[in-house]
Amino acid sequence: MILSAIIIFKLLAQPPKIQEEAPPPKESENVSLQSPAPEESAQPARQRKEYTYTFLLCASDQASGNVDTMIVATYDTVNQTIAMVSIPRDTLIEGVSDKGKHFYKLCNMYPYNGIDALKEEVRNIVGFPIDFYVKVNTRGFVKLVDAVGGINFNVPVHMSYDDPEQDLHIHFEPGMQYLTGSDALKVVRCRKNSDGPGVYPHNIYDAYPDADIGRTNTQRELIMTVLKKAISQPLNLPTYYDIFMENVETDLSVTDLAFFADKGLSFDFDNVTATSLPGDGTVSYKGWDWCYELYPDQVLDIVNTSGLNPYTTDITADMLDITQSGTAKQPA
Questions:
Q1: Helix H segments across the chain?
Q2: In-domain check, residue 43
């Protein structure tokens, strides 16, 4: 039965079709004296690498509904490489809701304006379109970890946080340890500790020395650990598919899923590059504290050198639209 399901899945596999970017407008044959010459204004359409696809992977915060985890990934299915970059949830943006409410953190874009607006804002940051999105709920994440039999994971920092209102209690010490699905969810959620001196809220402090950057690294590494173990158990593919369909919001079709699943079964995780977008997380902007202002030059370098760029030519600075406050600490 399982073998039959895998065979059917493979037969369904078809390379996804992505929406081509609109070509530049054709120049009129009658060029006025005020118009630039065609060779000066024409911009050739950028060429995509063959069978290379871009994704936005995200998960929502249980309490607020904001997007808590955001990872952009580029999968080159020809060369079998994946590049991943985490975007901090508090990344500074200029956001406006449909009702005219202004907001200034990337994590708020989804609850205010939806997934398409979030994809477009991420495109502004990285300079290339997002082909597909995958948004998983916490229930699906827990089920997937349990379906692979749990994971062994190196918890990087002391974690001690209690929130009776959410019935949330996180207690882990650094080091390699076995995590169930519910354990893994607690690890990726942990941002703050509550065992500092004094009483609430004075006893709250960052769990990571580099604040949310450390947490995004942990999230990405834990997700990779789960995926690596899942791929090592191909006979569980029907179970993974059921979990995916019940707990994931996506614009991937069944044939798209079959294509990527088929390619993924032979993927070598040594061919993954992963990092986080650099910036300053201490920025205050228009009354919003602790915004994360990205460093555009460093973002551009990461996009072009990490394998994230899906084009055959480099992305240029004018293709990025990254909000700047003018007050961020500049990188050394």
A1: 2-12, 38-41, 109-113, 115-126, 138-147, 181-189, 212-231, 237-247, 254-264, 296-305
A2: no
Bridge partners of 162, per DSSP, are 169
Any domain includes 38:
no
CATH of the domain at 301: 3.40.630.190
How many domains is the chain built from? 1
pLDDT tens per residue across span 211-239: 889 999 999 999 999 999 999 998 898 89
State how far the Cα of 203 lies from the Cα of 331, in Å rounded to an integer.
30
Q: Which residues pair with 76 in a beta bridge?
A: 52, 81
- Binning the chain into helix, strand and coil, the percentages to the nearest 5 are 35, 25, 40
Rounded CA separation 316/250 (Å): 29
The overall pTM is greater than 0.70 = yes
Quote the tokens at residue 188. 């990726």
Task: Report if residue 22 sits inside a domain.
Answer: no
